[in-house]
Amino acid sequence: MTKKAVVLGAYGFIGAACVRALQQEGFSVCGVGRSLSTAQKILPDLVWIIRDIATATVCDWQDIFSEADIVVNASGALQDGTRDNLTAIHETAVVAMCEALEGTRTKFIQISAAGVSDQAPTEFFRSKARGDARVMSSRLDWVVLRPVLVFGAQAYGGTALLRAAAAFPLVGPKIYPDAQVQTIHVDDLAKAVVQVAQGELGGCFVAELAEEGRQSFPDLTAKLRAWLGYPAWSTQVAIPGWMLTLSGRCADALGWLGWRSPLRTNALLSLESGITGDPEIWKSLGGVSLRALGESLAQMPATVQERSFARLYLMLPLAIGCLSLFWLLSGVFGLISFSAAKAVLTGQGMSGGFAGSAVLGGSMADLLLGVAVLFRRWTKTACLGMIAVSAGYLAAGTLLTPHLWADPLGVFVKVLPSMVLALLVTLVLEDR
């Protein structure tokens, strides 16, 4: 009889790998996520239940889990923001799930993280620890898996940032030289989930999943750079702590604009403390073998796609910042030079009222686009708006002041690169 599995966070980096591994072993899988468009893009053939995990009730979970033999909780968030609430996702939701499963024989697999504890330096680990504690105190058939740094062929979040750091040109950034890091390939984590789901290892245990060896963060970055095919840096520059702290604070602020930057304070504090685990319990139970970093990298050779992504990853925030600054300044200068801009239009035969309205409207549109592009949910729309408005400016300018195409300062010509930059941002904006 085919066993049925429900995977929460099924279109995430870890969740999607678990879905595929369970399907390969013959499980009937249903995914739970909060975005239908993302779900259908990542796993279009999967049966989906669209719910906001953070707000789902016990009754919701009872309906979702009604026929499940296995529940895999691969949902999670790094830090509080407009799109995420750590307590709601890591604790409140887990409490509701456990209540919904009380009295059933469903196996509950909680994917947590190595290093969780009530005294951990970040709320990510503390909230994960509270959720784990609720699972462990239940009467369910439960297992808690705590992986270390998870990476795979897909670049996402912290692993994407690692690739970008490894591909940094000319000079290597050196941060947290004493931090020790262990890794696990996402496919090995998915195999571990399948092994637990098949009941081979029993239940009611906590196991950390990690490779045998460990390396410093600079060594990890150097290995990834060699994997990408770049020569070793001739020079590395230590990044001072205050700069990392400032970067974290800036990334935290961007979190409230909808961006999930891997540079947020929680991630940096976790890295500073080291990302390590003890795989002895997993080994003693007979768990699947977990590959070392070098072996994993050798089995997924880097191509031009990986190198291109690594270089582009750090350029995206720079491109968005440049677009925002360009349009904000354009709007501000239009208002400051209102009279001069109006005079250009009236000089072409427009009425004063129409010319003033055109200058004011254009400046306000510029300011709106410059602000909107900073909000994650509006970035793509704002970029498309920038392209449309720029095209409108050029069309109107060509009709009214065609001589400006030959202006030595490139008044019209300089608009074209900004349109291309906005188009580029729309094409590389996806994070899954």
Automatic annotation (TrEMBL):
<keyword id="KW-1133">Transmembrane helix</keyword>
<feature type="domain" description="NAD(P)-binding">
    <location>
        <begin position="9"/>
        <end position="150"/>
    </location>
</feature>
<dbReference type="InterPro" id="IPR016040">
    <property type="entry name" value="NAD(P)-bd_dom"/>
</dbReference>
<keyword id="KW-0812">Transmembrane</keyword>
<feature type="transmembrane region" description="Helical">
    <location>
        <begin position="353"/>
        <end position="375"/>
    </location>
</feature>
<keyword id="KW-0472">Membrane</keyword>
<dbReference type="InterPro" id="IPR025695">
    <property type="entry name" value="DoxX-like"/>
</dbReference>
<dbReference type="InterPro" id="IPR036291">
    <property type="entry name" value="NAD(P)-bd_dom_sf"/>
</dbReference>
<feature type="transmembrane region" description="Helical">
    <location>
        <begin position="312"/>
        <end position="341"/>
    </location>
</feature>
<dbReference type="InterPro" id="IPR051207">
    <property type="entry name" value="ComplexI_NDUFA9_subunit"/>
</dbReference>
<feature type="transmembrane region" description="Helical">
    <location>
        <begin position="382"/>
        <end position="405"/>
    </location>
</feature>
<dbReference type="Pfam" id="PF13781">
    <property type="entry name" value="DoxX_3"/>
</dbReference>
<dbReference type="Pfam" id="PF13460">
    <property type="entry name" value="NAD_binding_10"/>
</dbReference>
<protein>
    <submittedName>
        <fullName>Putative NADH-flavin reductase</fullName>
    </submittedName>
</protein>
<feature type="transmembrane region" description="Helical">
    <location>
        <begin position="411"/>
        <end position="429"/>
    </location>
</feature>
<dbReference type="GO" id="GO:0044877">
    <property type="term" value="F:protein-containing complex binding"/>
</dbReference>
